Amino acid sequence: MNPDSPERGEEQEAAAAAAGEAGSAAAGTGGAAPDADAGLAARLAAAEAQAAELRDQCLRALAELDNVRRRAQDDVAKAHKFGIEGFAESLLPVRDSLEMALKADAPTVENLREGVEATLRLLASAFEKNRLVEIDPAGEKFDPNRHQAISTVPASATQPPVAPNHVAHVLQKGYLIADRVLRPALVTVAQG
Fold first, then answer.
1. Angle at alpha carbon of residue 143, lines to 129 and 146, rounded to 5°
2. Which of 67, 95, 99, 146 is buried deepest, with most CB atoms within 10 A?
3. How confident is the prediction along the chain (192 residues), in pLDDT tens digits per residue?
């Protein structure tokens, strides 16, 4: 075929017309594509802004959690270090009283007794203030959780009479701190 033939010219016109229609169709969808791209870009920007905000909130929450943990560790360390501060403060008057008794020039037996009784009251007050409770189980049923038996004695030999498996004599008082045994009472127990 000759490129200059009339048939060839018609074919070229038809191809050009088809290309024009395709171009105009692409231009038609090309007009819609920029609108769709703009909507997607806006949604993407909003999602990125929300992600950045959530990331910032997460970082702030982690920092706050770390601060709370650090403060709690500091509080525990201070409680260990200064936990007996209140008890020590309540014992200071007891020490002062004992030192004053030793400074007396010519103490009499009555003065010493009064001073010891006053000091004992101060000590009892310090114990009470700090929930240090005395265990004096005379006549009570033996409790191995609060009492330590040193020996047993026949129930018939106790004065006053004590029921079997009960505390006959208290050799040394025990102490509790807030219902926890600090030192068990040393006792003898009546056997049955």
1. 30
2. 146
3. 454 555 555 555 555 555 555 444 444 444 557 788 888 999 999 999 999 999 999 999 999 999 999 999 999 999 888 888 888 999 999 999 999 888 888 888 898 898 899 999 999 999 999 889 999 999 899 999 999 999 999 988 888 888 899 999 999 999 999 889 999 999 999 987
18: left (phi over 0), alpha (psi -120 to 50) or beta: alpha
DSSP class of residue 137? -
Task: Report helix angle 85-103 to 109-129, nearest 10.
Answer: 180
Residues 6+ apart with CB under 8 A from 8: 1, 2
Q: What are phi and psi of 33, to 5 degrees?
A: -65, -40
